[in-house]
Amino acid sequence: MKHVLNLRYHFGGRLLEHSEPVLLMGSCFTRHVGEALQDRMFRVWHNPTGILFDPTAIARHMHMLLEGQPPRPDCLVFLNDVWHSWAFHSRFSHPNADAAHALQAAAVREGHLALHSAGTLILTLGSAFRYVRCDTGEPVSNNHRAPAGEFERELPSVDALFDELLSAMLAVRGVNPGLQVLLTVSPVRHARDGLIDNNRSKARLIELAHRMCQALDGVHYFPSYEWVIDVLRDHRWYDVDLIHPNHAATREVIDLFVSHCLGRKAQDLAEQALRFTQADRHRPRFPETPAHQRFLARQQVDREAFLVEHPELTWYPPCVETQSVELEDE
pTM (2 decimals)? Predict the structure, then answer.
């Protein structure tokens, strides 16, 4: 008896290798793929300018990173005693205006380097809905909990979204012509839009992604949305809110990505690298014991020898406090 549907997916792009850095931009799912690649010692930038949910925001940020200039300091807004930018996630906000602008400028510099250096760009589309300021008509990337009446919610046509994203892609290819692009749609339902509008939104994103693949060489689709919604569709794969894929489902998607999009050598190195990451992340009950100290010493010697043998790998010491791999609220 069959318990799941067959996905029948084949990745037709250039398989990822450790010698090529990876830039990831988009919604929360981006972080999970980025952390998975970091754990496997790829050189990775994920969301250098923060979480971006809709294609308009992603396209605008790609142009901003190419120019290498953040919004001007006089574009900051003071809300709830903190300085924000409508273009940036709240992790680039600060009670001091100069500090907020400095955070945003540093993020743009990092993203500018990443966009010029990456071999593969992974874009995760979260929602087709965008919010625009009522007073200026400008789209925003984050509303920073400002009053809802200050924004209008829009659902652009696929044609409009396609034109915006295509323009950004062509501009990026102008400075990084060999850049490969992977497009995927986040499997997290935007329940606050209502299930009907959520499905309208996801449908436009899926059509947008496939149109981009048809329009440009080197642009490919990865089915994270279909894997969760159609293959892992039982509620046991979801968190208690029945909206967010749980830890196990997220790991399934990451395993699918690794098995289909990494080359054979990269998979072998990734498996070895992951052992070092997991060992470093382990927190024993009695860390000061001689036995554990000997274990740490062996791990460090073995890891350093592994990195010397494979200089294309990048070591990211794991941050234990942020190791949840479940998809966040979008």
Answer: 0.91
